Amino acid sequence: QVQLVESGGNLVQPGGSLRLSCAASGIIFSRYTMGWYRQAPGKQRELVAAITSGRSTNYADSVKGRFTISRDNAKNTVYLQMNSLKPEDTAVYYCNAQLKAFMTYDYWGQGTQVTVSS
Question: Tens of pLDDT along 13-25?
Answer without folding.
Answer: 999 999 999 999 9
